[in-house]
Amino acid sequence: MPDKNGFPHFMLKEIFEQPQALRDTIGPRISPENGEVGLADEVRISDDELRTLLRVNIVASGTSRHAGMAGQYMFQELVQLPVEVDYASEFEYRNPLIGGGELTIVITQSGETADTTAAQREAKKRGSRTVAISNVIGSTIAREADGVLYTHAGPEISIASTKAFTAQMAVLFLFAAYLAQIRDSVSKPVLRRWTKELLALPEKTEAVLQQAKQIQGLVERFYKFDDFLFLGRAIHYPIAMDGALKLKEVSYIHAEGYPTGESKHGPNALIDEYLPIVIIATCDRDDSGSVIRYEKNLANIRGFKQQAAKIIAIASEGDDAIESIADHTIFIPRAPEMLSPILEIVPLQLFAYYSAVRKGLDVDRPRNLVKSVTTE
Ligand code: F6R
After folding, report:
1. How many beta carbons lie within 10 A of that of residue 46, not counting itself?
2. Of 84, 93, 88, nearest to 57 (Cα)?
3. List of residues 6+ apart from 263 with CB closer than 8 A
4. pLDDT tens digit string along 260-295?
5. Mutation probe of ligand 1 site: the residue of 113, 349, 376 with most atoms within 8 A of C-beta
6. Which residues contact 324 (CB under 8 A, 6 or more apart)?
7. pTM score, two decimals?
8. Residue 34 Cα, ligand 1 centroid: separation in angstroms?
9. Probe residue for ligand 1, chosen from 161, 241, 249, 371 as the CB with the greatest number of ligand atoms within 8 Å
10. 118 lines ligand 1 (CB under 6 A)
């Protein structure tokens, strides 16, 4: 029987294991001498083939798909390859026009999700190469893939996926950096800076976890609300999606994840004092695109405040502007925009966890859910 190691629930234990999971997943794959990413033995597809790839498809379910959505931004930024992301459960229904010269990445913590293994078989049938990202050694998906990149998160017992998710995003970033190396799509000094930032994540995650008590206090003010809206732009949108998914699955509170800009195209009609908004509004000052998106987020928050909404913002350390307009601000350490999602999800996992505990629910085993969905 797995041990909770002094934690009241597996979910909390696994949230707190994230720094170690990231260390184990990232460290062994980066050369300490030159900062290069070494994945050749795991990817098992020749450099020549990787150099001529035309497109990447990412297929997964639930939280693993959210990691894939973040991966889309990473691949497009670092490798400049077009990436499509699909729900595994929908993949075969839309006649996916994939074939030779393409790579399909299937992501699944358990490696046994029926929709995802079926999608991998479909991709192979159509001539695509496949690489699986899985947390379980020797799982079905891993056995059937051309290459396998394991997340070294350790067994995940709680039904809600937490440490596997952050490890999946780290692996996707490593894979994107590896492809960028082979395809020369990013200069060596830039790649070195990326890998250095990646190696800094475990410690930054520890800093986020130190705010657990503050987040537990915040939950006291919010656990009675029936609905939440989670918002994020660009690579932060999948994090909004996953924050909402965590909240609904463990605390049974209705939550929607939406792209921030899309709120003007309908959801705004719902926004008032009864619909708290959790908005990801971090900023990478070294990235002009991130700064522009941040300014838009500030304007959005002002608008939501005029509609009497209560705002919980996830912001970058030291951001006084957000703190002065949001009702509550949770700070995360500064990181490049492509990597900050790995930090941003942590407070949202804690928010969902403490909400479920406050409501007296079975956090590790939410109703009607199983850890591994082995039927379609
Ligand atoms: C959410 C959650 C699920 C899984 C999904 C896919 O917290 O755990 O959405 O992510 O069922 O599972 P895997 O990754 O095992 O394929």
Report:
1. 11
2. 84
3. 229, 231, 271, 300
4. 999 999 999 999 999 999 999 999 999 999 999 999
5. 113
6. none
7. 0.98
8. 35
9. 161
10. no
